[in-house]
Amino acid sequence: MTTTIGPDFLPVLEAAGLAGLVSWVNNELVYPQGTDSATITAAEAALASYTYDAVKVAQGVQIGLLSAACQSAIEAGFASSALGSAYNYPADDANQGNIDRAALKGGSLWCQPSAGGAWSFVAHTAAQAAQVQADMWTHIQAEQTTYAGLVGQVNAATTVAGVDAIVWP
Asked: SS3 of 166, please?
């Protein structure tokens, strides 16, 4: 009999204290040379108690993909009219921190006119930077809300095809 093993088998091995002591290769448990019989018995028992759940595995994979897509959407940036007209701002971790700091005392931030043009390092007053910060937070919350809704759909899906159909918009 062949047992299908998914990435959800790793926690089973970890729970049994076997992570790193055995591995799964070509549908077989593989033991390093010199493995004691107690470890082998424990690994076989862990495998016997394991049930592969394709939907659960697909859900874990899809949530990971959605998380990465959410992070990319956040980092893609956002628009703010804090300078009087619409500008695009980057929102990777470094720029989020710079925006947060500029909101306290003012300072220059990277931005690009939404109508087109080059990115430049533009001075912002504390009030302007605070508006950029507020717009950034609205952007982040919108993306995270989308992510949360999609995760809920993934968790409610009952088939692998249903899970796979839930993608980032």
From this structure: coil
pTM over 0.85: no
Could you give the number of structural domains in the chain?
2
Q: Are 147 and 70 in contact (CB under 8 A)?
A: yes
**Residues 44 and 63 both lie in one domain:** no
Q: Which domain covers residue 76, as residue numbers?
A: 55-164
| Exposure letters 37-72 (e unless 16+ CB within 10 A, then b) | eebeebbeebbeebeeeeebbbbbbbbebbeebbee
Task: Quick: pLDDT tens for 95-105.
Answer: 999 999 999 99
Name the β-bridge partners of 52.
none
Whether residues 74 and 155 fall in one domain: yes
Same domain? 25 vs 92 = no
Helices (H), the chain: 9-15, 37-49, 54-75, 93-105, 126-156, 160-164
Tell me how far apart the terminal alpha carbons of the chain are, to the nearest angstrom.
Answer: 41
Report the amino acid identity of residue 145: T
